[in-house]
């Protein structure tokens, strides 16, 4: 299916220069001179190499339609492989960790994920948009630093560093955006 260059979104699989690419990040850029374009960070599906490309609205690219199925994460098979189970057929598959990229840190046992498959090969795995994690370590509140927009660094139970509001303390359960690795809100208990 052909789409315009400015319609590319993170997670889309496109065919570009004879290879399949996954859009990792996209940014709409409108320079002072010239036309606007979409700056896209692409990751080669097979080799994992990354590149940056500019796509104008007038350009068209081929978006690859993938079969999407719900799988459940079972366990880590080795330092490089993860085990998943199809929710419908109960068939188990092994997938390389690097397919998940940075979001592998948010994978939790029993979590339901969407697996994209193209011609029998796993192309990408999409985690839920948010997960609930516990703050393992957070800097103490500095008196007078309660201005809106001020954030402090904190470390999650999985070792990922995020910026959180000053009122968040060690041991607090928070909702984290898995795509951007960012704080969303305090978890409701």
If you had to describe this structure to a student in words, what would you say it looks like?
The protein is mainly β and 189 residues long. It has no helices and 16 strands. A hairpin with a 5-residue loop joins strand 8 (81-86) and strand 9. The strands form 3 sheets. Strands 1-6-2-3-4-5 form a 6-stranded antiparallel beta sheet, with no helix packed on it. It has a 5-stranded antiparallel beta sheet with strand order 9-8-7-10-11, with no helix packed on it. A 5-stranded antiparallel beta sheet has the order 14-13-12-15-16, with no helix packed on it. It has 3 domains: 2-63, Roll (SH3 type barrels); 67-126, OB fold (Dihydrolipoamide Acetyltransferase, E2P), CATH 2.40.50.140; 130-186, Nucleic acid-binding proteins (OB fold (Dihydrolipoamide Acetyltransferase, E2P)).
Task: Describe the SSE topology.
Layout: E1 2-4, E2 13-16, E3 19-29, E4 37-44, E5 50-56, E6 60-63, E7 67-76, E8 81-86, E9 92-96, E10 112-118, E11 121-126, E12 130-138, E13 152-156, E14 161-164, E15 173-177, E16 182-186
Antiparallel strand pairs: 1-6, 2-3, 2-6, 3-4, 4-5, 7-8, 7-10, 8-9, 10-11, 12-13, 12-15, 13-14, 15-16
Which key terms come to mind for this protein?
about 190 residues; mainly beta; SH3 type barrels; OB fold (Dihydrolipoamide Acetyltransferase, E2P); 3 domains; five-stranded antiparallel β-sheet
């Amino acid at each position: 299916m052909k789409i315009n260059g400015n319609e590319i979104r993170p997670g889309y699989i496109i065919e570009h220069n004879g290879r399949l690419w996954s859009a990792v990040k996209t940014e709409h850029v409108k320079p002072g001179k010239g036309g606007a374009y979409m700056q896209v960070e692409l990751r080669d599906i097979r080799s994992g190499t990354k590149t940056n490309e500019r796509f104008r609205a007038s350009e068209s690219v081929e978006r690859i339609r993938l079969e999407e199925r719900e799988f459940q994460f079972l366990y880590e098979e080795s330092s490089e492989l993860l085990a998943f189970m199809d929710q419908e057929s109960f068939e188990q598959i092994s997938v390389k960790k690097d397919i998940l990229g940075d979001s592998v840190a948010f994978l939790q046992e029993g979590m339901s994920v969407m697996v994209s498959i193209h011609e029998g090969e796993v192309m990408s795995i999409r985690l839920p948009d948010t997960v609930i994690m516990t703050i393992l370590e957070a800097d103490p509140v500095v008196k007078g630093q309660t201005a809106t927009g001020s954030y402090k660094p904190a470390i999650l139970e999985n070792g990922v560093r995020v910026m959180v509001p000053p009122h968040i303390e060690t041991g607090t359960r928070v909702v984290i955006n898995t795509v951007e690795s960012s704080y969303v809100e305090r978890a409701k208990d």
